Amino acid sequence: QVQLVESGGGSVQAGGSLRLSCAASGYSYRRTYKGWFRQAPGKEREGVAVIYDGGGSTFYADSVKGRFTISQDNAKNTVYLQMNSLKPEDTAMYYCVADWRGRRWSEAGNFGAWGQGTQVTVSS
Predict the structure, then answer these.
(1) What does the alpha-carbon distance between residue 99 and residue 52 come to, in Å, rounded to a whole number?
(2) Contact 103, 51 (CB under 8 A)
(3) Per-residue pLDDT, 29
(4) CA dist., res. 16 & res. 74, Å (int)
(5) Contacts of 4 (CB under 8 A, 6+ apart)
(6) Residue 66 has pLDDT above 90, yes or no
(7) What is the pLDDT of residues 17-59, one digit of tens each?
(8) How far apart are CA 44 and CA 4, in angstroms?
(9) Any bridge partners for residue 25, and if so which?
(10) % helix / strand / coil in the chain, to the nearest 5?
(11) Looking at 8-22, 56-70, 99-113, which range is the least confident one?
(12) What would the DSSP string read from start to end of 53-70?
């Protein structure tokens, strides 16, 4: 069973940066996606970014393109999300996801493994 543990969240002023990490256990390298979703209060979960195990292809939500970068270290079973030029609208709980079950990466229901989440708060 895959277990995901996020770290790196916190509070930052607009324009600042944070780096999230997600350590996976019980996870085997394979041809699948893993990545990050977020959920702001009163809103649905939103796909932020994913990366493909097999070749490193990445996909991003339009709202974070050019500001966020997802990367991975397969030797450490860890995925990262570097977040730059943060905006107040980036404030949310950020979740690491894995166990992609196919179809659209941006849909929460297509991932079977979720971490507990790490809070990111951006003040103006």
Answers:
(1) 11
(2) no
(3) 58
(4) 28
(5) 22, 23, 24, 96, 97, 98, 113, 114, 115
(6) yes
(7) 999 999 998 876 566 899 999 999 999 999 999 999 877 899 9
(8) 21
(9) 3
(10) 5, 50, 40
(11) 99-113
(12) TTT--EEE-TTTTTTEEE
